[in-house]
Amino acid sequence: MNETTIQGYHAHVYFDADSLDRARALCEEAVRRFGVQMGRVHERPVGPHPDWSCQLAFDSETFAKVVPWLALNRDGLVVFIHPDTGDDLRDHRDHAIWMGAVRPLDLSQFTG
Fold it and tell me: Full-prediction pTM beyond 0.85?
C-alpha cells in the first residue's frame, strides 16, 4: 500500500429545513472553537452530497480536536468526513467517516 499525503480534511454537516438553525450553529461554533474554515450553507444538494450541507475544512492537527467534538455535539445531524488527498473519488468513497446515517453520495462526477 502506498502512503498518501493527506492535505487536510472536510467535514460536511447535513441538514434540512427543520435542522438548518442547528447546523448553522454547529458550524459557527466549530469556527469559533477551532478556527476551521466554514463554507457556504447550501440549502440544496451540491456536488456529490444528497442533502443540504455546510463544509468545514481543517488540517490534520485540528482533526483530533474537531472530530471528537463533532461526535459529541452534532445533536442528531449527519456528518460526513473525508480526507483531502487529491483523489476525490477515493476520498469520498473509500476513506469516508460517517457520523449518523450513511447517505448515498452521487460519485458520478468523480468517475469521468
Answer: yes
